[in-house]
Specification:
The protein folds into two domains: 7-132 and 187-267, no CATH class; 277-412, no CATH class. The longest helix has 28 residues, at 249-276. Strand 7 (162-167) and strand 8 form a beta hairpin. The chain has 15 helices and eleven strands. The chain is of the alpha/beta class. The strands form two sheets. The protein has an eight-stranded mixed beta sheet. The chain has helices at 26-36, 81-87, 102-113, 135-144, 177-182, 189-193, 227-239, 249-276, 280-291, 299-303, 330-339, 348-351, 359-374, 392-402, 408-412, and strands at residues 7-12, 42-48, 55-60, 96-100, 122-127, 153-159, 162-167, 172-176, 204-207, 220-224, 242-245. Helix 1 (26-36) packs across helix 7 (227-239). It is globular and about 65 Å long. GO terms for molecular function: iron-sulfur cluster binding; metal ion binding; oxidoreductase activity, acting on CH or CH2 groups, with an iron-sulfur protein as acceptor. Residues 285-315, 334-364 form the 4Fe-4S ferredoxin-type domain. Keywords: Iron, Iron-sulfur, Metal-binding, Oxidoreductase.
């Protein structure tokens, strides 16, 4: 029997799970087992759209549909938890398996803390993630640095520190991610800052890091991260869809080294990017100048996994004057106050901003400072953030009736 912390090499048994998946197809096999045996009602994941630059969210109800979702999409930057909250009623009446990058897993926890997602009905399969590239960046990068037609690319992958593309004629070409990022290309800025490379918040964490020798490319490295994960993994093995073996000692070492290097890179990039926006009044002035391009489209709010309020304070006329573009800086201040202690650095607020305001950088920089002050690390467990100690509904009623945002008297009143 498996237990939390156990690690395996795993691959699909082709006779029981003929669906072709990547790295041995272990993830596909586990999802197939869960659907076929009614462990879950559906699987929420992504599939390739028109090309490798388009990741399309898809809710799969039948294992026959899983073949469309196999494989990686590093140019797809969709965040799935908000979809569960907005369109699937927070999984209150549906059991859903979800494939999760690190930011997906953290967003899932933060929404669950706010009672927007029912974690009892969620099974998370974590996917190791070295980062993703925005579709437009990928197209420009491939044309400029690779000298290839972006429309000719049929597959991309990140391996051994390189971003590798494959054309429809079978041509492979890879360039070091470090080299790309030195020229302002490569991964999204928030991915460069990320420290969550193996999402152990999930029930199981899967990837190809640590698979070496003849098993490389044919096997998935699986780490059991919860009792729920252990139960499903064991059941999938028992059903015959999944084969396993113990990981090689050298493979364990390699996996650990890869993770450590990438975490150190994340910390180094945090320091670099946070330093660039200054401190104190310098940082505030920088944020105000960048935010002055805001057209109040609400893209940052609509797509942020922490923004869940039914009645958004940024739409209150006594807080933010209606019809004023760019909006008063209070618009940004409200977002900082509501989100900064719980930002999971998913990058959606930057990526979907039509004015290219680096919102994610501002949020993440503040979150790290608040973490130093209060010790709360968002997205890793069910510990509540600092601001949760203010009763939301009570504060909404008071704010609506008084127009005052001063809560301290209520909070500290004996």
């Amino acid at each position: 029997m498996s237990a939390k912390g156990d690690m395996y090499y795993a691959w699909a048994d082709q006779s029981a799970c003929p669906i072709k998946g990547e790295c041995g197809g272990a993830v596909t096999a586990i999802l197939k087992y869960m659907l076929d045996n009614k462990v879950v009602d559906a699987v929420l994941t992504v599939k390739k759209g028109r090309d490798v630059y388009e990741a399309v969210p898809v809710l799969v109800h039948s294992s026959e549909e899983l073949s469309k979702t196999a494989g990686s999409l590093h140019c797809g930057t969709v965040l799935l938890p908000k979809i569960i909250k907005k369109y699937l009623d927070g999984a209150r009446d549906m059991k859903i398996a979800v494939t999760c990058k690190g930011c997906d897993a953290k967003a899932m926890y933060e929404l669950a803390k706010r009672q927007q997602i029912n974690m009892d009905n969620i099974f998370m399969i974590g996917l190791n993630c070295g980062g993703s590239v925005t579709p437009m960046m990928a197209r420009n990068m491939i044309a400029e640095k690779y000298g290839l037609n972006p429309n000719d690319i049929v597959k991309e992958e990140i391996d051994k520190g390189q971003f590798i593309v494959i054309t429809k004629d079978g041509e492979h070409k890879g360039i070091s991610i470090d080299e790309l990022e030195e020229h302002g290309l490569g991964r999204r800025a928030n991915c460069q800052r990320c420290e969550t490379k193996i999402p152990r918040q999930a029930d199981i964490a899967c990837g190809n890091w640590g698979v070496i020798g003849e098993k490389a490319g044919k096997t998935t490295f699986v780490e059991i991260c919860s009792e729920k994960g252990a139960a499903v993994f064991d059941a999938a093995v028992k059903s015959g869809v999944l084969q396993t073996s113990a990981p090689e000692a050298k493979g364990l070492e390699v996996r650990g080294k890869i993770e450590n290097v990438m975490v150190k890179m994340g910390k180094k990039n945090q320091e670099k990017q946070f330093t660039a926006i200054g401190e104190g009044s310098t940082r505030l002035n920088y944020i105000m100048a960048e935010s002055s391009r805001c057209i109040k489209c609400y893209g940052c709010i609509e797509n942020c996994p922490i923004c869940y309020c039914v009645e958004c304070s940024t739409k209150k006329p006594h807080l933010v004057r209606p019809g004023v573009i760019p909006p008063d800086f209070m618009f940004q201040m409200i977002r900082f106050a509501h989100i900064a202690d719980s930002c999971v650095n998913c990058g959606q607020c930057s990526e979907l901003c039509p004015m290219n305001i680096p919102n994610s950088l501002f949020m993440h920089a503040q979150q790290v400072e608040l973490e130093k002050m209060f010790g709360h690390k968002p997205g890793y467990d069910m510990t509540m953030p600092v601001l949760s100690f203010a009763e939301e509904m009570e504060e909404r009623e008071r704010l609506h009736s008084t127009g005052s945002d001063m809560i301290f008297e209520n909070v500290f009143k004996e």
